[in-house]
Amino acid sequence: MTSLAHFEAVAGSLKLPGEAVIDGKLRASASGKTFPNVTPRNGRVLNHIAQCDVADVDAAVKSARRAFEEGQWRKSHYRDKKRVLFKLADLMRRDAEQLAVLESLDVGKPITDALKVDIPGSIRTIAYYAEALDKIYGEVGPEAPDRFSFAVHEPLGVVAAIVPWNFPLLMAMWKIAPALAMGNSVILKPAEQSPLTALKIGELALEAGLPPGVLNVVPGFGAEAGKALALHNDVDMIAFTGSGAVGKLLMQYSGQSNLKRVSLELGGKSPHIIFADCPDLDKAATQAAWGIFYNSGQVCTAGSRLLVQQDVADQFVDRLLGVARKIVAGDPLEPATTTGSMASEEQMKTALRYIETAKREGDALALGGKRTRTDSGGFYVEPTVFDQVRPENTLAREEVFGPVLAVTRFKDPDDAIRIANDTNYGLAAGLWTKDISLAHRAAREIRAGLVWINGWDSCDLTMPFGGFKQSGFGRDRSLHALHKYADLKSVSITL
Question: Active site residue: 19, 300, 334, 399, which one?
Answer without folding.
Answer: 300
